[in-house]
Specification:
Elements: E1 3-4, H1 11-37, H2 46-54, E2 58-63, E3 68-72, E4 83-86, H3 94-100, E5 104-107, H4 114-140, E6 158-160, H5 177-191, H6 193-199, E7 206-210, H7 217-228, E8 232-236, H8 237-240, H9 247-262, E9 265-270, H10 273-276, H11 290-305, E10 313-319, E11 337-340, H12 346-357, H13 368-373, H14 380-396, H15 404-421, H16 427-446, E12 451-457, E13 468-473, H17 482-503, H18 511-526, H19 546-549, H20 560-587, H21 589-602, E14 604-606, H22 607-614
Parallel strand pairs: 2-5, 7-10, 7-11, 8-9, 9-10
Antiparallel strand pairs: 1-6, 2-3, 3-4, 6-8, 12-13, 12-14
Helix pairs in contact: 1-4, 5-6, 5-7, 9-11, 12-14, 14-15, 16-17, 16-21, 17-18, 17-20, 18-20
The chain binds adenosine-5'-diphosphate, magnesium ion and zinc ion (ZN).
Length: about 625
Amino acid sequence: MSIKDKPKVPISRIIGNILFVSGVLFLLANLLLPQLFGPAIPRVPYSLFIDQVEGAEVTEVLVGDKEIRYRLKSEEEGKPGQILSTTPIFDLELPKRLEAKGVKFAAAPPPRNSWLGSVIGWVVPPLIFVGIWWFFLGRGAGGGGPQGALSFTKSKAKVYVEGDSGKITFDDVAGVEEAKTELEEIVEFLKTPQRYIDIGARIPRGVLLVGPPGTGKTLLAKAVAGEAGVPFFSISGSEFVELFVGAGAARVRDLFEQAKQKAPCIIFIDELDAIGKSRAGSGGFVGGNDEREQTLNQLLTEMDGFGAGDATVIVLAATNRPETLDPALLRPGRFDRQVLVDRPDLAGRLKILEIYAQKIKLDSEVDLKTIAARTPGFAGADLANLVNEAALLAARGKHEKVAQADFNEAIERVVAGLEKKSRVLNEKEKKIVAYHEVGHALVGATLPGGSKVAKISIVPRGMAALGYTLQMPTEDRFLLSESELRGQIATLLGGRAAEEIVFGSITTGASNDLQRATDMAEQMVTTYGMSKVLGPLAYQKGQQNTFLGDGMNPRRMVSDDTAKAIDEEVKEIVETAHQKALSILNDNRELLESIAQKILEVEVIEGDTLQELLGQVKGLELASHS
Ligand code: ADP
Ligand code: MG
Ligand code: ZN
């Protein structure tokens, strides 16, 4: 992989050690050297000095504050005389005496190292402390890692740079075509920012990749960098929130500083939810995580920071838990673009398998298409793992090439591992989900409700849904008529109705549908006053004060009779919708069958194919706008 790490020389540690050692040496020198080598000049009494001056034995004198040094006349020619010292006493006559004897004399210059000494005296001891501090901090907190104490505000972002061998491109990612299309635009921004700036367009700052684990979010981000050929700073959310209190925010600032210098470039924050968790969420404000909060605030500030004229720095982030993100992160100017990276459908899985099959020796009888068909719900990472697992099995069996049998065994292994983690459907479940989803779609296509079915899929999506039917509102609707609400409730029940008709039994898969249908019916009765029996009264209390009203019945105080009547009305609405759904599906039994068979084959039906199929539905009701 083309990772170029920042130089990780633990400079702080080296400086710390040098300071520590030199400090110790300095102390030793100061304390011990004077004793060891002492003043080499013999000290004599002042009276002897005066005698020698009077006796004309002295040639030169240096008069200092604390010491008088003098040189005696030499006894032999050419050899300097002995140097002696004495302690001065208050003697105003001394200059006169020296002058009288013709002795050269001068005041001693201040000791050469006195100012230096005092500077050292002031500066070095604190340095020693700092050195000791670094020394121990480096040991303790760094845990021996490459991160010294000095660099704790330096971001740990790794930089991927273009031109490195093994760079990742969009060709390495398959099965997520929609996400790729969206990201291609980002690549354009990075390649030719000027074109967009000239026309006055605002280049998006933040793009959030959302999708289940292993679908290739990290891979896509790397591919964007590879395609655009720009520097790529990569950091994970949990690295932000680490170790030093308050350093998280500094790290973000540092990262953005570095990035701006390298613009155009990409900052990639993996697992954004680690920092971007909703502030109102878990834990509330009591004992909230200050550190994370600060980091998040810094991130928001920095993202607001690059204005129009600024360097092109695009922040890419990935998360598999978008629902936990702080809404502030998703506001315009921040991560306002979201790209869904979903599990691949049949065709996507085939393409991913083809990518990884190139890397192994494949037996010619291997049919990747059947493998793709047998692995609904597998994410890209699972498929990569599957191919590797098959290759391992082949190698273990000492085969030359990877055979279909190896794949079959590998699928079983991978599925067994996945069943706990995510949803992989077996054949029977897949069939139930197919009829269920087609049931939603057929009822939705027949009844008014303002939505057009755009896509039916039995590829497990997100964390909860087994399959899904995507309804696109044909126009923005703020007002819904009673018949449209009833239509939506019937559509929600269409899935369950289909299961009843086809299998004669029902599964747990419809529980979310029932919840939503019941809520909607209750609102019709208690909030919108749509019940003939109960009349146009609002039985629902307004906005609940959660602080005081926690756990209380949200209904207005009603008599037991009224409460009972409400329950009956709700039940009536849901049951009517249920019957309606059943009758629509019974009328369209063959169509239900044929679409379900088709979807079992291809897993996803959308676009014209879907419209054509749904156009055959019998008993179409037109939306009645009232
Ligand atoms: P995520 O970040 O979404 O959890 P990753 O990008 O880390 O997933 O995927 C892990 C690995 O799985 C990738 O390195 C790649 O080998 C493989 N992979 C995942 N999705 C795809 C895909 N769509 N196409 C090709 N390979 C994929
Ligand atoms: Mg990832
Ligand atoms: Zn459903």
